[in-house]
Amino acid sequence: MTYLEAQDHLAKIKKEVVINHELAGVTKLFDGEKTCLFENVKHYEMPVISNVVFDRKSIADSVGVEVDKLIDKYLACMAEPLPCEYSQEKPAHKSCVQVGDAVNLLELPIPIHHEKDGGQYITAGLLIVKDVATGKQNVSIHRLQVFNEKEMGILILPRHLWHLFSQYEARGEALDIAICIGAAPALLLASQAITPYGVDELEIANAMLDNQLKLVKCETVNVDVPEHCEIVIEGKLVPSVRKVEGPFGEFPRYYGPAGDRPVINVTAICRREDAIYHTILPGTKEHLLLGGIAREASMLRTIAHTVPTVKAVHITFGSSCRYHAVVSIKKEHEGEGKNAILAAFSNSHEIKHVIVVDDDIDIFDADHVEWALATRFQAGEDLMLIKGSLGSKLDPSSDKGISDKIGLDATLRLDRDSNKFQVMRIPGLEQMKREDYL
Ligand code: FMN
User: Fold this and answer.
1) Is 113 contained in some domain?
2) Whether residue 143 has its Cβ less than 6 Å from ligand 1
3) The domain that contains 127 carries what CATH number?
4) Structural domain count of the chain
5) What φ, ψ does residue 177 adopt, rounded to 5°?
6) What is the 291 CA–ligand 1 centroid distance (Å)?
7) Same structural domain for residues 37 and 127?
8) Per the domain annotation, does 402 fall within a domain?
9) Pairing mode, strands 48-50 and 35-38
10) Atom of ligand 1 nearest to the CA of 163
11) In this predicted complex, what is the ipTM?
12) 122-143 pLDDT, tens per residue?
């Protein structure tokens, strides 16, 4: 809070706000600009916070680096995670504990965000599970629909949580889970890391936080959670039970459909006395950037295996931080632009359009990228079209996820006529300042 206020990044919403739709609307008004602290939520004592991180700088600041070093730091921490120690202190989130019959999710200010959402959704919970065979934990964020006081539905795409849950389900056993709401941004970012199964994302977060992350044990489940968070919901992912969850307004700004989904039975709710409830409004910069930065890091690493001179990757907001990648390379061999495109596609099935440019182009400036396309790209030579591969099922233009993809190589040929591509320049412009002429 102190940081946000010092940076003038905090909008304190004093007016009474209704939890359904109105809270989402105000969050949207400040999307990309400010964190919203809702101090007066109708029918609830607990304040709500949204847009906790809202641009690249706020994320970089949260892990103590400059924006242009964020991906490097993330990759370094993924390469060398740091095991966490247990805290010896009683954590603040254990000052109010509900167990058994006392558990009541409906007391928390959990919003309905969009018009056709199936109900109230928890969207900013770090879902932690422990693989008891290795002691390593897995952390991920999932949309969680509140069904009643003690039950939630969960969407689990086939990644690491699904991998562990399906083993328990095959044995007819429930999987212990904990959901942490109101944890530090570094933990949210670490939860999105694209790693092999078995890498503990809390250890990545600990590396990002310079070994300051301590854990505490849960009350009713065998899971360790961060010492500092506002609310911890404990529960069991039950085997062989499915209930209808959804629809839900998702990151591409369309609704994900309703379907039969696994169910969590809540066994405890622990919270700070003065807890603040964090919600992530789907499709906002906060939502998109958390996934986008993780994908940029992963794609940079993959492309570097085949094009070592890759400089940076930008997965754009316009593509919901999922579908379009702009890649800059320092081309040293003819054909590397197309190899970078192939590597980008191999990195993520969600990627649909890739543009590769030379390293004199600012890939975070859409006009600059378009200029490269306009003046360095010829479709007959530089366009790669791939038909009928797997894309994102949430892209409504795909056929149940089957999608065409294109790669655009807008790098200059190495044997070009350098006179034709001489970029015009005004001598001395770099040193000139407007104020000196006013
Ligand atoms: N992944 C899902 O499978 N289901 C979801 O409902 C879901 N919702 C998300 C909501 C937000 C706000 C964010 C940032 C991500 C969401 N994700 C969801 C993505 C996963 O959290 C992410 O891919 C994570 O890295 C998966 O971790 P795992 O591979 O360790 O299972």
Assistant:
1) yes
2) yes
3) 2.30.110.10
4) 3
5) -135, 155
6) 8
7) no
8) yes
9) antiparallel
10) 31
11) 0.99
12) 999 999 999 999 999 999 999 9
